[in-house]
Amino acid sequence: MLYAKDHRTHDMFEPFSFLGPKRLQRMKQTWAGLFRDEILAEMPVDQIRRHYDPVQGRPTKELHALLGAVLLQQMLDLTDEETVDQFAFNLQWHYALNITGESDQVAYLCPKTLWTMRALVMREEVAPLMFDVVTEKLGTLFKVDTGRQRLDSMHIFSNMRHLGRVQLIAQTVRKFLVNLKRQDPEAYGTVDEQLKQRYLSKGATGVFAMVKPSESERTLQILAQDMWDLIEGFGSQQTIRKMHSYRLLQRVFGEQCRVQGEATSGQRQIVVKANCEVPCDSLQNPSDPDATYDGHKGKGYQVQVMESYSEGAEEAEEGASLNLITYVEAQRAHESDSPVVERALKKTKQEGRAPQQVVADSLYGSDGNCQRSQRQGVELVAPVKSNKPPPPVGLADFDYDGNNRARLCPQGQVPVRTKHKKQRHSAQFDGTVCGPCPQGEQCPVKPGRHGHYLRYSDKELRLEQRKAYEQTQEFRDRYRFRSGCEATMSELDRKTGLKQLRVRRMSAVSLCVFLKAAGVNLLRATRFHCRRNQPKDTLGATDGTIMGLWHCGKSVLQARFAACSNRIGKLKKEVIEGARFPARQTV
Questions:
Q1: I want to staple 428 with a disulfide (CB 3.0 to 4.6 A). Which of 231, 385, 417, 556 is the partner?
Q2: What is the pLDDT of residues 287-328, one digit of tens each?
């Protein structure tokens, strides 16, 4: 039976009055108070209502509190056992989730109930909605300005072991044999005994882990042959071909090996591919088929994060210094960063958090992304992805009209003729003038049949102009705020444990990414709320005894120094005027 409490209607009497006025005030200043007052009632309970009967069955746990527990678990980086204990005994959790009773029906959470709710959140894709609810509520409450945002990515790891090629193939074969033994014992009996002994005997996995580098090639050849024998031996059985472990076996063989020869001749040779031939989206561990490989950062996943930011201390004093994460996305490790810009702008525009300026690194700053962002009214501030320095004389040094047609060269020479075809341009200059030009060797204008020609496209011109703009101080002043993303990534890692997750598979990783980002927004908003409401004249009392004594001592020293300065000034004046030491009289 469905049980969802109405958290929008406040209680007539404070249910936590037993805490006393001081502890209750302290509780309201923590994340628990902000979560209870602003976030709890907005939990997307309607997305999971249909899984519970409104009348029949035993009453469920309060659904708002359950969704809140799933979010708090990711925010505080807790295990399932720790989450159950916090739900049952932590008074701060009771206040945040509005748990006012003391019975087991209200204040106890079974681990199985937590697992079921988390599975529903993954299946119904409720985690993105929870992130949007938290971000939208906090953005409206604190009037966050999303006009300027920055975008970056971070590599994360799932709860899987990093395997080499030998161990990967051995684990995949072992997984298939174990599942075959459980699901089809008769087919398992037809497998060669030596092959079963090689992979299922005690310590078989450890034997493959101890292969010497000099013997790895021969061992890989044996493993590849065993994989091929199993694939060919059970390829005609439809029930076995539908097994997940059999499809993994086929995937690993296709990524790591190839067959040479024709089936008609009966001479087939199994060849292990070289490391450079294995694709980046290949299987990394049979326990996590969604994880892939990145050549720079390794195996696992990556998360895209876009957040708002403020420039300068003046805006911070006006209340616009709360930086909220406005967009997150979990990806496999091998996927490119470039397509994320369009998806991030589209999503933030739908949710009312669209930026006017986005700062990102060169991986996001392709010409296509800049053009698409400009059409949406967003300026993408990112350097050009190029290792070549800007030329001494380039396309950016010429003068152009509104249609990107050259009007003047850097030396003031007017072109004789210009042509335009689609996005290609050409400008013809007088050869008698361009020939003796001192910058002729460095100039992009090259000699041709009837003169000297400048040939370029709209894209080449835009890239050259962006490279020239990168050398200016204005670009450096705007682009320096991109480094603030590193602090956000560090906070996601230290506070929520996003760098090393306890789960596997893309669905579980996505849930963690969305809820941990929502948790960081909640923690940031709590700190900002306390800092904004803190009296400025009580800095010593709020920041600790040491800071208070330091400020007090500083004030005393400043007062004494001012008094001494005034006294010295008076003495100098008296000496000059002769009032202090009158001139000696001579007889």
A1: 417
A2: 999 999 998 889 999 999 999 998 764 444 444 578 999 999
Cα separation, 351 vs 329, whole angstroms: 15
> What is the Cβ-side half-sphere exposure of residue 318, based on CA atoms within 13 angstroms?
10
pLDDT for the residue 556:
56
E strands, 176-291, in order? 257-260, 269-272
Residues 435 and 551 in one domain: no
Nearest to 306 by CA among 146, 436, 529, 159: 146
| Residues 372 and 393: beta-carbon distance below 8 Å | no
Compute the mean pLDDT over every residue in the chain, rounded to the nearest whole number: 86
Maximum separation of any 2 CA atoms in the chain, in Å? 139
Cβ-based neighbours of 425, under 8 Å, separated by 6 or more: 404, 405, 406, 418, 419, 455, 456, 457, 458, 461
Domain that holds residue 555: 543-576
> End of a domain among 454, 470, 486?
470
pLDDT of residue 266: 59
Q: Which residues make Cβ contacts (< 8 Å) with residue 118, sequence separation at least 6?
A: 70, 511
C-alpha distances in angstroms, 211 versus 161, 164, 386, 428?
A: 17, 11, 42, 67
CB atoms within 10 A of CB 143: 10
Specify the pLDDT at position 548: 47
Same domain (yes/no): 99, 174: no
Q: Give the chain's domain count.
A: 4
Instruction: Confirm whether 496 is domain-assigned.
Output: no
Q: How confident is the model over 57-103, as pLDDT tens digits?
A: 788 888 999 999 999 999 999 999 999 999 999 999 999 999 988 88
- Kindly indicate the confidence band of residue 127, based on its pLDDT and cuts at 50, 70 and 90: very high
**Residue 314 has what pLDDT?**
44
d(CA 317, CA 315): 5
Domain identity same for 175 and 235: yes
User: Could you tell me if residue 64 is inside a domain?
Assistant: yes
* Distance from C-alpha of 177 to C-alpha of 200, rounded to nearest angstrom: 8
Among residues 572, 518, 494, 547, the alpha carbon closest in space to that of 129 is found at: 518
Which whole number is the average pLDDT over 527-548?
Answer: 60
3-state secondary structure 51-86: HCCCCCCCCCCCHHHHHHHHHHHHHCCCCHHHHHHH
Query: Under a CB-based contact definition with an 8 Å cutoff, are residues 76 and 171 in contact?
Result: no
Q: Give the E-state strand segments of 516-571 in sequence order.
A: none
Pairing, β 357-359 against β 379-381:
parallel
When mean pLDDT is compared across 162-176, 209-223, 228-242, 417-431, the lowest value belongs to 209-223
* DSSP calls for 309-347: ---HHHHHHTT-----EEEEEEEETTS-STTHHHHHHHH
Nearest residue to 148 via CA among 477, 387, 406, 385: 477
- What pTM was estimated for this model as a whole? 0.85
Could you tell me which of 126, 513, 71 has the C-alpha nearest to residue 301?
513
pLDDT in tens, 460-504: 889 988 998 998 999 999 999 999 999 999 999 999 999 999 999
Closest CA to 306 of 325, 321, 320, 323: 325
Average pLDDT rounded to a whole number, residues 105-133: 94
Q: Side chain identity at 492, as an amino acid letter?
A: L
